[in-house]
Design a protein that fits this description.
SH3 type barrels; 256 residues; two-stranded antiparallel ribbon; globular; 8 helices; 14% strand; five-stranded antiparallel β-sheet; 3 domains; Serine Threonine Protein Phosphatase 5, Tetratricopeptide repeat; alpha+beta
């Protein structure tokens, strides 16, 4: 089902104190070892090696993507979706990640229709998904510098025509600076947050409140993506794509 297995280069800078020898295997070597195991069909071995890299607090879209492919080949659908989503957070415009995630999502039980968004949210999301947080930050900084230049031009210029041009261009770049700063901030917050999760219980009933004896609302299944709204003790308040809200035990999910 997964049509391509992408091999990326995972680069590591090892900082070693003078006089000490590194005792651990370089992470790029581990990554290549995991890739070889995957290519040989040894998916458990590949996941074990990738897990060693993850345990050292390393992350990359390539690592998450290859983990997802190995889980998919191992018929662990929820874990595959989880790691495709992790990869997508770091590389939202990667076509291979999006393609394989769509395949995995087509195999889960729940087919939840997403609530249509207002037109201005669609516009915002279009630009939001266009660039990474870093690139939006660079664009925002450049816009602020141009805005400062235009303000100076407006103040120092002696001609009405130049002042008028600087004023209207300044308004345009003021709006652009604020918008791109907002996009960069939202993008960064999203990559750092864990407000989305995947259901890891085969079948579970969503409750009306954070107690076992509360009213049953609806049932969702393994692999479904949910939004985490709140947490009370060992319960999380969740929202699914059609807008339905309820409570689940925290142990039933894994956060993206």
């Amino acid at each position: 089902m997964i049509v391509r297995f992408k091999t990326y280069c995972l680069v590591l800078i090892m900082i070693v104190g003078m006089g000490l020898q590194a005792e651990t295997t370089p992470l790029d070597s581990l990554f290549k070892t995991g890739n070889r195991a995957y290519n040989q069909g040894l998916y458990d071995s590949a996941l074990n090696v990738y897990g060693q890299i993850l345990n050292q607090n390393q992350e990359s879209a390539a690592l998450y993507y290859n983990c997802a492919n190995a889980y998919f080949k191992n018929n662990q659908l929820a874990s595959a979706i989880l790691y495709y989503e992790k990869a997508k957070k770091l590389s939202p415009n990667d076509e291979d990640i999006a393609y394989n995630l769509n395949i995995a999502n087509s195999m889960i039980v729940d087919k939840i229709e997403k609530v249509p968004e207002l037109f201005y949210k669609n516009w915002w999301n279009y630009f939001y998904n266009m660039f990474s947080a870093d690139l939006w930050t660079y664009i925002s900084i450049a816009s602020w510098f141009i805005l400062i230049f235009l303000v100076g031009l407006f103040i120092l210029s002696k001609t009405r025509k130049t002042k008028k041009m600087a004023f209207y261009l300044g308004l345009l770049f003021l709006f652009g600076s604020v918008a791109t700063f907002g996009l960069a901030s939202q993008k960064y917050y999203y990559t750092q947050s864990q407000q989305e999760a995947i259901i890891f219980t085969p079948t579970i009933t969503v409750k009306s409140s954070p107690t076992l004896n509360s009213v049953d609302l609806f049932v969702i299944h393994e692999g479904t993506k949910i939004q985490v709204l709140d947490q009370v003790d060992d319960w999380v308040k969740i929202k699914i794509q059609d807008g339905s809200i309820g409570w689940l035990p925290d142990e039933a999910i894994q956060r993206i």
